[in-house]
Amino acid sequence: MAMTADNDPFKYDIAFSFVTEDEGLATQLNDRLQDRYRTFLYSKVQEKLAGTDGEKTFNAVFGKEARIVAVLLRPEWGNTRWTRIEETAIRNRAHDQGYDFHDVYHDRIWDCDSGLAAQGTYLVQP
């Protein structure tokens, strides 16, 4: 069960932003973390979000409700309908708070089973 505190200002400990091609990787990461942390992965909560304004929801999640935002970065990220909204929310938040709330996983692939990053992969921690 994820740890929570009554006075915690964040709804989620970590939210994942990614393009469709990385949904499998995002799901693996989410599945490894969701028992210990409150995670946001759209494909896992889309039924709960049905009927809501997706733009407002994604702005809220990536702009203020997630303690950490993990971006699985590809050249297409920020150029699709939803990642464009997520990117805008992240940039707006960074403008106000700095980039201490996010990590960027670049050019794949983190092997969740071995815990090893593939060659050419790096983690940027501001």
Describe the structure.
Residues 107-126 have low confidence and may be disordered. The chain is globular and about 40 Å long. It has one domain (12-124): Rossmann fold (3-Layer(aba) Sandwich), CATH 3.40.50. It has helices spanning 23-33, 42-49, 54-65, 81-97, and strands spanning 12-17, 39-40, 66-73, 102-106, 110-111, 116-117, 122-124. The protein has 126 residues and is of the alpha/beta class. It starts with 11 loop residues before the first strand and ends with a strand. Helix 3 (54-65) runs parallel beside helix 4 (81-97). The strands form 2 sheets. The chain has a 5-stranded mixed beta sheet, sandwiched between helices. A two-stranded antiparallel sheet has the order 5-6. It is built from 4 helices and 7 strands.
Short structural summary:
With 126 residues, the protein is an alpha/beta fold. It contains four helices and seven strands, in the order βαβααβαββββ.
Write the layout of secondary structure elements.
Layout: E1 12-17, H1 23-33, E2 39-40, H2 42-49, H3 54-65, E3 66-73, H4 81-97, E4 102-106, E5 110-111, E6 116-117, E7 122-124
Parallel strand pairs: 1-2, 1-3, 3-4
Antiparallel strand pairs: 4-7, 5-6
Helix pairs in contact: 3-4
